[in-house]
């Protein structure tokens, strides 16, 4: 159990990659904070983790809403006393030519894929720092380092995430927070 007694926050934990990460961390002994917008799906994942003997906290949260993110971080701190791992997994995708991409779609992708990891990292950072450090994992995409047609909004958000990851990685060195 490589993560025994570690506390991991996983965004987008209600399905897909986030669900798999959360369950995998629980199997390795982590206490898991399941963060997403879908309460029914979060309860389903929590039930599975509890069936494995894991400890879980459900946090209904929208990564684009700072108050929601701040409340999640505070609830995790109150319940478990610390946060050791943050997985910024929540994300969205849309493939359209630039001329057919609405401003709303552009803003939605930037908000979910870039603003969300920024807000989550911001509000978890001091909790990690107070606990002696931690790890922040930003889930990216090949679209963050390679251009594809019809991916302008998505790729822009993921290229931005690469920049956020590199910059916060440098900042984290002083605070014993690893960012990848």
Whole-angstrom Rg: 16 Å
How far is the N terminus from the C terminus?
22 Å
> How would you write the strand order of the largest sheet?
3-2-1-4-5-6
pLDDT < 50 runs, ≥5 residues:
none
- Helical proportion, percent range: 40-55%
Order of helices and strands: EHEHEHEHEHE
Number of helices: 5
Structural class: alpha/beta
Overall mean pLDDT stands at: 95
What is the overall silhouette? Answer: globular
> How is the biggest beta sheet arranged?
6 strands, parallel
How much strand? 15-25%
Helix and strand topology:
Layout: E1 7-11, H1 16-27, E2 31-36, H2 39-51, E3 56-60, H3 66-80, E4 85-88, H4 103-130, E5 134-138, H5 152-175, E6 177-179
Parallel strand pairs: 1-2, 1-4, 2-3, 4-5, 5-6
Helix pairs in contact: 3-4, 4-5
Q: Which labels suit this protein?
A:
six-stranded parallel beta sheet, alpha/beta, 180 residues, 5 helices
């Amino acid at each position: 159990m490589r993560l025994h007694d570690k506390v991991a926050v996983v965004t987008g934990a209600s399905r897909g990659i986030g669900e798999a990460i959360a369950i995998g961390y629980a199997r390795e002994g982590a206490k898991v904070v399941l963060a997403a917008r879908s309460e029914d799906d979060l309860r389903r994942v929590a039930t599975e983790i509890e069936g494995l003997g894991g400890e879980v906290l459900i946090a209904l949260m929208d990564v684009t809403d700072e108050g929601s993110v701040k409340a999640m971080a505070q609830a995790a701190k109150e319940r478990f006393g610390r946060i050791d791992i943050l997985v910024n997994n929540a994300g969205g995708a849309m493939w359209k030519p630039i001329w057919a991409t609405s401003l709303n779609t552009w803003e939605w992708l930037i908000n979910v894929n870039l603003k969300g990891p920024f807000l989550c990292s911001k509000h978890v950072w001091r909790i990690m720092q107070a606990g002696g450090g931690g790890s922040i994992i930003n889930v990216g995409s090949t679209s963050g380092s390679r251009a594809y047609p019809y991916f302008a909004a998505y790729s822009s958000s993921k290229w931005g995430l690469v920049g956020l990851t590199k910059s916060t990685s440098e900042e984290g060195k002083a605070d014993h927070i690893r960012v990848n």
